[in-house]
């Protein structure tokens, strides 16, 4: 997959003038093992994640501070038309949990799910969600792009159906699958999680 430095979106001053353009060219390619190492061991990412969680505007903070990857594959530029090769993974993002503890529980439930069998699950930058990197199941009759988008749609719908019930995590929680951006170049912010779960085959 491709690894990008922040920011994911342009940073503007109060007058709307561009201060920093978005990063569109990847910094390097990374493996899922390298992503796991960054998430669990990188001290700089630990500091940045704490800054995001303490920010008044978490969404703006993560967009300007956190590095991100394109889980579906590698790109020469952050654009679907610049797709190079598939990673054989898709991302499922569960948001809207009520506490960090619920995110810890959801991280384990998704990891243990026998249908999903994620390679990696970790707590999202907000501390109130989970990201899961799910293997793609390939069909020889369709192209890479179609396979990836179909697998991503299936995984998202499955998680929404299986875990979006009142009893999923607690009596009050209804998890929310983030359906925004189901295209190849969908990005995933990295966040520090020393207890991230990684499947080594």
Helix content: 25-40%
Largest sheet: 5 strands, antiparallel
User: What's the total count of β strands?
Assistant: 13
What would you call the structural class? alpha+beta
Tell me the radius of gyration. Answer: 17 Å
Taken in chain order, the helices and strands follow as EEEEHHHEEEEHEEHEEE
Tally of alpha and pi helices: 5
User: What portion of the residues fall into strands of 2 or more residues?
Assistant: 15-25%
| Count of domains | 1
Ends distance: 19 Å
Strand order, sheet with most strands: 11-8-10-9-13
Question: What attributes characterize this protein structure?
Answer:
globular, about 30% helix, alpha+beta, 13 strands, 4-stranded antiparallel beta sheet, about 200 residues, 5-stranded antiparallel beta sheet, single chain
Describe, in plain words, how this protein is organized in 3D:
The chain contains 5 helices and 13 strands. Mean pLDDT is 90; it is low at 165-173. It has one domain (2-198). Helices cover 31% and strands 21% of the residues. The longest helix has 20 residues, at 144-163. Strands 11-8-10-9-13 form a 5-stranded antiparallel beta sheet. A hairpin with a 6-residue loop joins strand 9 and strand 10.
